[in-house]
Design a protein that fits this description.
Oligomer: single chain
Largest sheet: 5 strands, antiparallel
CATH class of the largest domain: Mainly Beta
CATH architecture of the largest domain: 6 Propeller
Radius of gyration: 21 Å
Structural class: mainly beta
Helix content: under 10%
Number of strands: 32
Length: 409
């Protein structure tokens, strides 16, 4: 598959022009979206509906030896990965049933793992907090690949995110800094101390800026949330201050764009308006049995996942593009744009009208349309012009009109 640069905007918004005249596929009835909360001292992963009603312990206490779970993510295999700060391991569970499968990662290099996230290319990235290292593992072979970033420049790395400029941002808890590393080499670039946020834990890109130029941040020993620029760390504004907060670890956004703060010390996940900082109530709390929440994550069982391993140079680029969790044997399309954004498919379109993309309109085009395999996945190796390097692609499952996250070439 070669991503075409010749398709015009009409080809993007009217998928039927590429021969996609029918996307009817037998689709199993899927579960509604929900939230998962890692509870530190309860040693479990709790499941809540979108209104904050407790449903069950998806991962029961101490299942598979889980001790002090901190963060979780879904891997390319569709299973749930959870860090065990007390067990010094990454545990793997069935996402649907919560059944323990096995230990996904462990070793002498892993000491007090906290944050966990799969990289844009699909490898497992783990913060080995006590060792002051960010670790990388091959998601297929589970081989330890080494330090993801320069460990000599970290004290206690915790939360991390990838920006759109080829950098990895890491919250260095003990140093009180956000540090920036090169995503390809792991080399340290620079760092800054976020004003008024001692002991930063995790952070989240602001929902109003799809280009990832700003993020919100809190800390374990503060009661405020502030917004900063990714480039240079300049403070934009103070969003909120709440004396009720105690030992905030997880900082994230809900599916509605409100702020979730996991207040460990008060046994609450507290919800706030992003624009005004107004407290909206407790999403989860001690009254429903919650204790010591570390993090909360939104899970959409129907969302396809996209992974891209890219090599770009002056002559062009090559990429291995993999997707999972799409409709088995259903049609899928890969869209390309120069930037992230919020372009919406026109309401007059016959297929997926009104769906809001995670891409901008600049150079928006279709790169590929074709079926997933019987497992709802597929891998494609492709080459593309140098002008497309640094742009973004997104998968749309045409049977369900569900989107993956946008990923960078």
């Amino acid at each position: 598959m070669k991503i075409s640069t010749k398709l015009n905007m009409r080809s993007v918004v009217l998928l039927g022009t590429l021969g996609v005249t029918s996307v009817c596929t037998a689709i199993a009835i899927a579960e509604d979206p929900y939230y998962l909360v890692c509870t530190g001292t309860q040693n479990s992963v709790r499941k809540y509906d979108l209104d904050g009603n407790f449903l069950q312990d998806l991962v029961p206490p101490l299942s598979g030896g889980l001790s002090r779970p901190n963060y979780l993510d879904i891997g390319p295999d569709g299973n749930l990965y959870v860090t065990g700060y007390g067990s010094h391991k990454v545990h793997r569970y069935n996402l649907q049933t919560g059944a323990f499968i096995d230990i996904a990662a462990q070793g002498a290099e892993m000491n007090g793992p906290t944050y966990l996230k799969f990289s844009p290319k699909g490898n497992l990235i783990v913060s080995s907090y006590n060792a002051g290292r960010i670790l990388e593992y091959d998601s297929a072979t589970r081989e330890f690949l080494g330090d993801y970033v320069d460990s000599n420049s970290l004290q206690n790395g915790h939360g991390l995110q990838w920006d759109d400029d080829g950098n990895v941002l890491v919250a260095d808890f003990s140093a009180g800094m956000i540090r920036r590393f090169d995503v390809e080499t792991g080399a340290y670039i620079d760092g800054f101390s976020p004003a008024g946020i001692p002991n930063p834990t995790t952070f989240a890109f602001s929902p109003t800026d799809p280009k990832r130029r700003k993020y919100i941040l809190s800390g374990y020993n503060t009661t405020i949330v502030r917004e900063f620029e990714t480039d240079g760390g300049n403070q934009i504004r103070t969003i909120l201050g709440d004396a009720r907060l105690r030992n905030v670890d997880g900082v994230s956004f809900s599916h509605n764009g409100t702020i979730f703060l996991s207040s460990w010390g008060t046994n609450e996940v507290r919800e706030y308006d992003y624009n005004t900082g107004e407290f909206l109530g407790n999403f989860a709390e001690l009254a429903d049995g919650l204790r010591t929440p570390v993090s909360i994550q939104y899970i959409d069982p129907e969302q396809p996942r996209l992974w891209v391993d890219t090599n770009c140079n002056g002559a062009g680029g090559q990429a291995s593009i993999q997707w999972t969790n799409a409709t088995p044997n259903g049609q899928a399309a890969i869209l390309y744009a120069k930037t992230r954004g919020n372009y919406a498919i026109p309401g007059s379109n016959a297929i997926c009208p009104g769906v809001g993309l995670g891409l901008g309109s600049s150079q928006l085009q279709i790169g590929f349309v074709g079926p997933s395999n019987g497992a709802g996945s597929r891998t494609i190796n492709t080459s593309f012009p140098a002008s497309m390097c640094g742009g973004f692609i997104q998968l749309i499952d045409l049977s369900r009109c569900k989107l993956s996250e946008a990923n960078q070439l």
